[in-house]
Structures are given as C-alpha cells and as structure tokens.
Amino acid sequence: MDEQVGREFLRSARARFAELKALGEKALERMDEGDLRFTPDPESNSVAVIVQHVAGNMISRWTDFLTTDGEKTDRNRDGEFVLAEGSTREKLRALWERGWQRLFDTVGALTPADLDRQVVIRGQSLSVVDAIHRQLTHYGQHVGQIVYIAKTRKWRTWESLSVPKKR
Questions:
Q1: Which of 99, 117, 108, 111 is nearest to 52 (CA)?
Q2: Could you give all domains of the chain from N- to C-terminal order, each with its CATH number?
C-alpha cells in the first residue's frame, strides 16, 4: 500500500475508533447501575453485558494482532454474555478502558507497511485493512446498542449525542 495512503488510513481508523469510544462513554455516563443492568427482553443483552463482550473482544483481537489468531484460546466468549459476579459501574468502566487501551496501543503501533500483511481471526485470513474495518463495524454495532438502550432508559431527559432533530 502507498505510504501516504497507509498513513491516512491509520489516522482515520484511530479517529473513528476514538469517536466510537467517546460516543459510548457519553451514553454510559448518563446511565445508573439499574440502567446498566436493564435487559430490553429475555433475548437481548444489557449494557453491562455488551461492555463485557466488547472489552473481551478487543483484548482478544488486539493482543498480538499481527502474529496470533484474534480469537485467543483463553477467551471465554460465551462467558462475556453473562454478567460477571460483583460487576459494578467502576469495574465495567475499568474493563471498557482496558479493552480500548489494548486497541489503541496496537493500532497506534501499526505502520503503513503492516497494512499489506495478513492476520487471522477465528481461522480466517484477512488483510490488516479488512480486519480493522471488521472491528470498526463490530464495535459500531455495539456502541449503537448502548446508545439506543441509554436513550430508551433516559428518554424523558435525553439530550442528543449528535445532531438533534430539526437542527
């Protein structure tokens, strides 16, 4: 990949990840402990569970990103969908931060030359560019879920996190 295009891609990816993190945090800040544990229906996940899953995914995917399968053998993906015993707002926030820090450390260390490399996620070979896009999409879906649940829980006092209607 062209060096200049590669630098721009990495800058853009870091910026988009940072925007997703900030959006999720704005929604999380508006939620109390009960809101974090609220489940819209029996088949849906609470925000607390979504946070656990996103962090678990980030830690797995971005640890040794260039050299090992992004689905680590020590990851308990199914366990991420059960609220951990003793989970508190503070513990969830620390887990969220740990996942995002791993992502930013890894993506921040990538160079344009790395973009031509192949990585493996769940046994599937992907270009680094495709793997980054895959994770941006995945995290965007989950941050959207967090925002939606926060908005439905706080609808009476909700202030838009983006452009309000009719503006």
A1: 99
A2: 3-153 (1.20.120.450)
| Partners of residue 126 on adjacent β-strands | 119
The pTM score is: 0.94
pLDDT of residue 155: 85
Query: What mean pLDDT value characterizes the chain?
Result: 95
Q: Are 127 and 115 in contact (CB under 8 A)?
A: yes
Answer whether 120's CB lies under 8 Å from 27's CB. no
The yes-or-no verdict on residue 114 having pLDDT over 80 is yes
- Alpha-carbon distance of 126 to 137, in angstroms, equals 15
Do 14 and 104 contact (CB within 8 A), yes or no?
Answer: yes
